[in-house]
Amino acid sequence: MSIQRLDQSCESPFRFNKYKMNQWSASLLILFVFQVKFHLAQEVQLSDNPEIFDDRYKGCSLKMAKIIPQILRSENVSNYIFSDGWRQAIDYWRKIKPILKNLPKGFRDEHGTALVAYTGSLYKAFNKATRDVGISVKNYKNNFQFKAMHYFLTTAIQLLYNKRKKLVYRGVRDIKFIPSSKSRGVIRFGQFTSSSVDAAVAIGFGNSSFFTIQTYFGVDLQRFSMYGGEKEVLIPGYELFKVASFDRQVHRFKLISKGQTKSRFNCAYWKASRPLG
Questions:
Q1: Which residue has the higher pLDDT, 201 or 17?
Q2: What is the CATH number of the domain that holds 80?
């Protein structure tokens, strides 16, 4: 008996109901996927004061440098995601350090490791953590498990800053950004933001929103990156941009750096715990 005939001979009400159930399940699945995609593609506002941890350590960098080794040791024990990614970054940094030239004065191994770690596996968890604790100093002190990485990443960007404007691009998948009406045409990203000098590379990361950016404080990370082909420029979250143009239909931005910085937090580790307005 052929398979086709066997199937025909075994038809029953149960088989019919199962087929109907499969149709119903498939419909639910399609609806669920549509809802998820709709949710992911919802609009997100950009402003000049996002609730993201964005400390510049202005006026306390040397003070932080004295205690940060202890914090780094503690987070290596308490945060396994960080410790695993940091360990991988150390190995890669040791490989590339001998061929890197003209590193700035004061640039330590931890600075290089932080840059490598961000270009590697840690950027998602790290950026999410900065968003999760952006409401208050207390939240940062009690819940932020990337204090050491944030300090070394921030100060590395500051040490490598060369006062040259760069034209870069950023593509984003599943999020449609819009400028906040309260921002009066001035925004900042709040978190560290990856971009590329190559528009084709940037659009490969997403096309739901697309940014053409002139950055003043962004730093070229190609020689530090685990993925040099991405031609990455890392923009600090505290850089202020003027929205030169915005196309709402396709969510296309042109941003021009104001050559200024602003942060919600500064020297938060040393401040009394309080909410931020």
A1: 201
A2: 3.90.176.10
Asked whether residue 29 falls in the same domain as residue 87, the answer is no
| The total number of structural domains that make up the chain | 2
Q: What is the pLDDT of residues 67-77, one digit of tens each?
A: 999 999 999 99
Residues 26-50: pLDDT tens digits?
Answer: 445 544 444 444 445 678 999 999 9
* Residue positions annotated with a catalytic role: 170, 194, 232
pTM (two decimals): 0.83
Q: What is the largest CA-CA distance in the chain?
A: 85
20 and 50: one domain? no
Token pair listed for 181: 């009406």
Among candidate residues 162, 164, 73, the one with its CA nearest the CA of residue 110: 73
User: Is residue 276, in this structure, part of any structural domain at all?
Assistant: no
- Residue 258 CB partners (closer than 8 Å, separation 6+): 186, 240, 241, 242
106, part of any domain: yes
**What is the per-residue pLDDT across 212-257, written as a single tens digit (0 to 9) for each?**
999 999 999 999 998 888 999 999 999 999 999 999 999 999 999 9
Cβ contact 81:128 at 8 Å: no
Domain co-membership, 25 together with 54: no
Tell which residue, 142, 131, 211, has the closest CA to residue 170.
211
Which amino acid is present at 86? W
